[in-house]
Amino acid sequence: MNTSENTRRELTQDEIIEHARGLPGVVAETAGEVTGAPEIAWGDTFFSYDPDGLAPADRPFPFATIVTKDYTGFDTESNVDRPGVYRLNINVGRAEFERLVGHTPAAHPTHHADFDYTELDRLLPHPAYATQGWISVLNPGQRTADQALSLITRAHARAVQRHR
């Protein structure tokens, strides 16, 4: 993928999936009826480091995800239900979260209201999982596409380290 193109337009979900699948040991699974995932997750994609080829139920927790809808009663602040909107979520860890956001994950509850979680193409704390070191971006584009791909690569490296 030509990264100079990424700075001029929005990344597609397929481009993000292609990037993550190109990293060693990554399993990218888009939930659906055939995957046995709960119906609420259908259409969402989960990226796990799984060099051993484990069964889906035994795979490590994802290091990144793409969600395509709101989860009623739990995760609606991004308003992902808008046409054409998706959210990339990345587990960046505590130190990187603080560097990117300006406060620790543990301090996020006191900063939660400082963010517009519906803003497109802006790196944000994850509205539900910020305290666990997750960031998110809705429709990565001109401002965030290259950074988003880099953060996926670094989250993968963290997952590799945890696996060892």
Overall description:
The protein is an alpha+beta fold and 164 residues long. The chain has one domain: Alpha-Beta Complex (Aspartate Aminotransferase, domain 1), CATH 3.90.1150. Helices cover 27% and strands 16% of the residues. It is built from five helices and six strands, in the order ααββββααββα. Strand 5 and strand 6 form a beta hairpin.
Please tell me how large the radius of gyration is. Answer: 15 Å
Which strand-content bin applies to the residues? 15-25%
The largest β sheet comes out as: 6 strands, antiparallel
- Tally of separate helices: 5
Structural class: alpha+beta
Portion of residues in helices? 25-40%
Give the gist of this structure.
The chain has 164 residues and is of the alpha+beta class. It has one domain (3-163): Alpha-Beta Complex (Aspartate Aminotransferase, domain 1), CATH 3.90.1150. It has five helices and six strands; from the N terminus they run ααββββααββα.
Task: Show the helix and strand layout.
Layout: H1 3-6, H2 13-21, E1 26-30, E2 45-49, E3 64-67, E4 87-91, H3 93-101, H4 108-111, E5 124-125, E6 134-138, H5 145-163
Antiparallel strand pairs: 1-2, 2-3, 3-4, 4-6, 5-6
